[in-house]
Write a structure and sequence with these properties.
Elements lengths: L8 E2 L10 E4 L12 E3 L3 H10 L5 E3 L20 H46 L1
Antiparallel strand pairs: 1-4, 2-3, 2-4
Length: 127
């Protein structure tokens, strides 16, 4: 039968790195991935999770992961205003690109679901 990946441990989205097996504890239509449990394989996956920002709804499985999450940074050291503004601009550009990519992933997921429904309808008709 299915092998259980172990006990999930809650993490903050900023701790996600490549190699973590994560669980997004949200409905399937609230995220751009095909499944809610996935191995983070690329930097693009990390960026999408950061853009999606599933705070208090993100878990990782240490037994199924090939790496450890980043440590959670809790000290609120304020950055200089110029650096913060430049970082905000870069994040806004990255956020816009990620939103566009997330919409493309959503469209692909919906198209796959439509094809599956069409195949099921054809099978029912044939039966």
């Amino acid at each position: 039968m299915w092998k259980k990946p172990g006990n999930p441990i809650p993490i903050h989205p900023s701790q996600v790195v490549i190699g973590l097996y994560v669980w997004l504890d949200v409905s399937w239509d609230e995220h751009p991935f095909l499944t809610s449990r996935l191995m983070v394989k690329t930097a693009k996956d990390v960026s999408i999770i950061l853009a999606f920002n599933p705070v208090d709804r993100l878990y990782y499985y240490p037994d199924a992961s090939s790496s450890e999450p980043l440590p959670l940074v809790t000290d609120g050291v304020a950055a200089p205003e110029a650096q913060a503004q430049a970082q905000a601009q870069a994040e806004a550009l990255q956020q816009a690109a990620l939103q566009e990519e997330m919409h493309a992933l959503e469209a692909a997921k919906k198209e796959k679901r439509r094809r599956q429904q069409d195949a099921a309808t054809r099978a029912n008709r044939a039966w």
